[in-house]
Amino acid sequence: MLGVVITAAGSGQRFGGEIPKQYQELCGQSVLSHSLARFLQHPMVAHIVVVIAEGHCDFYETTLKSIDVVAHPKMLKPVLGAATRQASVKQGLLALKDTGIDQVLIHDAARPLVTDKLIDDLSGGLKKAPGAVPILPPVDSLKMIDWANERLVSTLPRAEIGRVRTPQAFDFETIIGLHEQMEGENLPDDAELLLKAGLDVTLVACSEALIKVTVKEDLEILSALIQKDSPNYEYRSGIGFDVHAFDEQTDRPLVLCGVKFENHRPLKGHSDADVALHTITDALLGAIAEGDIGTHFPPSEAKWKGMDSAVFLEHAVTLVNERHGKITSVDLTVICESPKVTPRRQEMRERLAEIMKLNINRVSVKGTTTEKLGFAGRGEGIAAQASVTVALPLERSL
Length: 398
Description:
The chain is of the alpha/beta class and 398 residues long.
């Protein structure tokens, strides 16, 4: 398993201003948000810990909320940085110590454009050595300088020099052990610990786009790169509606949004008859023009009998993901005289958010009655309607 330590405890003195560079806005999100998003979506990454400065807690919480990862399972609690970068990294490594990871990436928050390929290549590099770093050849002539007297001293051989960036990858037990052994040495980066210990560090090619935000002009360059590669989205809405009658013959609980209502009449249906999940599934399928729930899960097929309706909704979510889409909102209304939805609404929202892998702030559940009118008013069954919004990359959806 792969863990990630993101160092975000710096003050960014060279950048200037009241907002540290890792929290500066870049294309509508903070620089740190972009870094986090790159690691969160990668399937190899199991755990992420961010090292922050003591006075940056509000900045950090705002960052998490902006990308809907406040309660993301990969995110560990942030840890506070120390006086030096090396000491701060050690705090992050210690936070990962009991997570079961065997590889770790150590990354500067101010480098937002990490790619999946680089993560893959760095992890693969650890098969050759206990450390792997992204490297770029020098593009300029490099000189030794006498800064005090403003004079050139000598020329450095470019064939023997490279520009090292982050993330840097390490065997976890090796790097945490070296941090403990060399505590207080204040080395320039983590690869230096391996070099001082006489261990190998392999090189992995990376892109010039892996820029570190140091001055304000860097944000302009990164913004241009992000906008060049970012897809334009269109937003589609889907509407779902479903009705199920109460089943007076079956002895099982009523299920709404995957939440069981014990001691209440269940609904009739080939599956578990979760009218709420059926409705949202239909809404999602409608938003991406993929038919309806019966198209994908025909009630005539015995294998769906008694099936947990979460399976149906997960399938619809997968179809959205396969189109590189994003579900941006879900609004469900349950229509019945009983049970009362409001007391269980939070449980229903939490279960929906879990099934759909959404931040709960994007999920709405409401209950209403028909004022004793119609089949629902007579207590014969439950109806549900849902509206969902999906963002799809424009070039894929037209």
